[in-house]
Amino acid sequence: MRAPLSSPRRRDALGVFLVALAVRFAMVAWAAGRFPPAGDGTYYHRLAQRLADGHGYTWLWPDGAVSYAAHYPVGYPALLSGPYALFGAEPVVAMALGAWVGALGAVAAWRLAAVWRRRGLAVTAGLMVALHPGLVGYTAALMTEGFTASLWAVSAALVATGRARRKPVVFGIAAAVTLGLATLVRPQSVLLAPALGAALFWRASLWRRAIAAVGVSVVTLFCCLPWTLRNCERMGHCALVSVNGGWNLLIGTQPEGGGWAPLQVPPGCETVYDEAEKDRCFGRAARARIASAPGAWLALVPEKLAATFDVCAAPAWYLNASNGEGVGTTERRRWRRSEMVYERWLLLLALVGLGGLERRGVVLAAVGVVSALHTHATVAFLVLAVLPWLTGRWRSTGALLGSGAILATALVHAVFFGGGRYQLVLWALLAVPAARGADELWRRVRSWRERRAPDRPAPER
């Protein structure tokens, strides 16, 4: 029977949590009252208000009509609705909740790294998440990416705990339920379920890992089932979570580039007003456009991936969109630079942590390093996804799920469209190999210095 966490390790976890919470609440104190909801946050805020007021997940139109809604995933507004009902439907309440959830993500990164039983390494991983300028700045945003990053990390930490305590089933169910909540917040989270299950039994046979992958996926989907049935009844379309797949697919076929662009409504969909039916109409138009010119659609993939992995500007974009005077062009540029420098360093360290200094991985890691030091970092992310499989470090929960998260993100946004905020979901997981890389570099430098130091005579007795 394993002993519980020692007092020093508990103090480490508490310290990471308090640092993360302090910097996020400092952000909340600065942003409160200055930055109203912007972008998709406007809709999340209004839907959460209606849930808190007891109107259900519905939309109130300017003419007074009320309709059921499912365009936006329900998870985030549902999480906001409780605090809104208790403390008032104000953006600062959503920011405060985001601060707490973000701090949990930092502790989850600490727990993931704690399996190596090196206190400094685990604390480094936690602080990398706690002080990440993108995640901290996005606390002020009423958006889903920060919540998703923390929920993914908590799911992974539960798997790591289940493996360490040899209770994979109990903690596997808890991880699947957490991932189910993440799926309600961000539907593509369900793609991580197989990797989450396989990570529970990485020492077991392939057959047992496959069963675990299916089991976790089933539990994750089961958590979404009540909402799916609600969509069947209320929306006339049995969407897993939201009815925006057709919209996003159609946006991803437009020639404007790899990022979001205003939707050009295709012929035949102009007079379709039902929310679910309009999404299906857009989906049909998107598939027809792809079928007519598949080469042109595939040619957009590099631009979509570049828009997702190369751009580091999520908080700056949101705050500028919310209040252009509060964060103007100069402040937006500075914020973007600080986030880019921080994330590029984490990329470099993660490449080392996933075996980039080993003989089998050094060439591939070198390609990733060049990409990370360049404006275009997409290749570095893809190298991070492949490297642990080449060096054998995929057996680590953090490496396996980090690899899965990168591949899932790349797949989703290659099909639909990209955006800098979509990579934020990765950093709570990638901080773990980054901390391991920092630890490995430090040990190698210390070893080199010891070898270089001249022999000292033994002290006289």
Describe the structure.
There is one protein chain. By secondary structure, this protein is an all-alpha fold. The chain has one domain (8-441). The protein contains 20 helices and two strands. A hairpin with a 5-residue loop joins strand 1 and strand 2 (66-68). Helix 7 packs parallel to helix 9. The longest helix is centred in the middle third of the chain and has 29 residues, at 206-234. The radius of gyration is 23 Å and the shape is globular.
N/C terminus separation? 47 Å
CA-based shape = globular
State the domain count.
1
Helix content: 55-70%
Total DSSP E strands: 2
Unreliable residue runs:
none
**Major sheet:** 2 strands, antiparallel
Strand content: under 5%
Structural class: mainly alpha
SSE sequence, one letter per element: HHEEHHHHHHHHHHHHHHHHHH
By DSSP (H or I, 4+ residues per run), the number of helices equals 20
Give the strand order of the largest sheet, numbering strands 1, 2, ... along the chain: 1-2
| Radius of gyration over C-alpha positions, nearest whole angstrom | 23 Å
* Mean pLDDT, all residues: 92
Indicate the topology.
Layout: H1 7-31, H2 40-52, E1 58-60, E2 66-68, H3 75-87, H4 91-114, H5 119-130, H6 133-137, H7 145-164, H8 168-185, H9 193-200, H10 206-234, H11 245-251, H12 275-292, H13 294-299, H14 301-309, H15 314-322, H16 329-356, H17 362-373, H18 378-391, H19 397-415, H20 427-452
Antiparallel strand pairs: 1-2
What's the quick description here?
With 461 residues, the protein is mainly α. The chain has helices at residues 7-31, 40-52, 75-87, 91-114, 119-130, 133-137, 145-164, 168-185, 193-200, 206-234, 245-251, 275-292, 294-299, 301-309, 314-322, 329-356, 362-373, 378-391, 397-415, 427-452; strands spanning 58-60, 66-68. The model has no long low-confidence stretch (mean pLDDT 92).
